[in-house]
Structures are given as C-alpha cells and as structure tokens.
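Entries read sequence, tokenised fold; example below:

***
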Amino acid sequence: MINIKKVHDAFVSNWIVFVAYVCVILAFRFWSDWSNFALWGNTLVQIGVAFFLLQLDHIFTIIRRRTLLPMLFYIILVGCNPIFNVSLKDSLAALLMMVNYLFLFQTYQKPDSQLSALNISLILVLGSLFWSQFLLFFPIFWIGFNRFHSFNLRVFLASLTGIVMVYLFVFSWSIYQKDWMLFLSFLPKPKEIFSISEPNLSNYEWISLGIILFTYIFAGFNLFVVSISEKIKTISFLKYLYVSSFFIFAMAFVQSEYRSYWESIAYIPIALVLAHYFTLTNKLYVKILMLIFLLTLLIIRFLQYFSA
C-alpha cells in the first residue's frame, strides 16, 4: 500500500527525489542532442530562474516550511514543453522578471520605494530593447506597488525616470554615432507590442495547459475562498501573483508568436502559488492531486518525445 503522505513529503523536501525527477525531465530534452551548447545555456538559465524563485520564497518566507516545490514546479512547467528548448531570450526574460519580483516585494508598506521603482523600470526598459512587450508590464508593477501600499507620486515618477534614462542614453549614443536611425530602431513599435496572432497548439499542449489551469484554479479557490492561516503580507503577495499571472497567461494566447516568452514568465507566479498550496494544505485529496499533476505532466512529455 502506497503511503501518500510519505511520497508527498519526499517531493516537498527530499533533494534526492527532486534531483531524480528533474534528471528525468532533462533527459527528454537532451536525449538526442547532448552536444547542443545553446540548449545547455538555455537550460542553465531556466534552472537559475528556478533557484532564484526558491530564494525569493526563503527571503520573504512565503511558504512557512522548508520546501523544494517552487523550484521543482518551475523546472517541470518549462521542462515539459519543447517550446522552451528553442530560444535563450525567453529564459532571459523570465530571469529579468524574477529580479523585478524581488525588488517589488521589498516595497511592501514602504512608501519611500523610489529606488526599487527605478530599478524595476530600468530592467523593463532594457528588456524591451530585445522584447518590446516588456513595456506592458509597467501597469502590472504599478498595481503591485498599489497593492503593497507603496504607490505614490514619487514612486510613479521614479518609474518614468527609468524610461527617460534608457532612451536618453540611446539618443546620446545615436548622436555620437551620427546615426539617427539607431535611435529610431530602438523606439517601441506599437504594431509589434499590441500584435495579435492565433494560438497554434498541439493536442498534447492543450491537454497540458488544461491540467495546469485546472490545478491552478483549485489553488486559487483555496487562496480566495477558503480561510487560510497566513500573514496578511503573505496573502497579499500570493493574491497579487495569482491575479497577475492570469493576465500574463492570457497574453500567451493573444500573442502566440511570443508564447514562449509569456509562458516562461507566467510560470514564475504559477509555480510559487502551486508550491504554497501543495506544501501547506494537509488534506489527503490535495496530496493526491499533486502527485497526479506531476505524473501527468511527465507522461505527456514522454508522449510528446516519442510522437515527435
């Protein structure tokens, strides 16, 4: 008879189980292409994002228990879909967003958060130089400042200052190079930022996304409806991540051309919210749901690999 509780605890905090599961995921990725250095680089950045997510949890004590689930879930979510094997840029975008979450969470109930607002702004604008959609995250972070009681005129102006600083530098560089087209080439293009393209997903991808969303809705029900014993600060973080992740995830369908970017970023809050839900909820059906979730994603990745 399988002891569900012991299996669950092993996934939550056992490094051996964690490494074994991750190795299985990565084996599918590298099975026929071990010498692809670009793929290795992309994978290392994704592991770095997962590690920083685990550190984010430790710094702000979002999950009141030692757990590896934030790191495990992120690696599984990006590792179980081949679209994240292709481009290094989407992983770098997720890494930049991970840093921004760190700056944002530091502003909780701190009205003098101009420096954090400036840092977030600089990262978003610099990121927009290789992916214009980074600029769409400004309202999301302003909402975050407001949610964490740190938004005011000074914080807003600090955000605008970051935008001006980057484009002023690019403008000065274009003058130095005597090339006006250089400056114009870096300006955001509305047609690109607000582009719309129809989703083009395989059957396996639809099933995988359906399982992720179904499980995530369960976690949201626990967060918004069920009375959970948590600090107000932690609840504020989790609710902000939960709501904002739906906007980010929706953009992956609206702009399927950039789906790998949007999803790699959306999986950061999704992984943390799911980790909180599956680590601290002691009901048996939740532990079973987590094991089914992990097993199903692994099976889908297995089927994707052998049907390719």
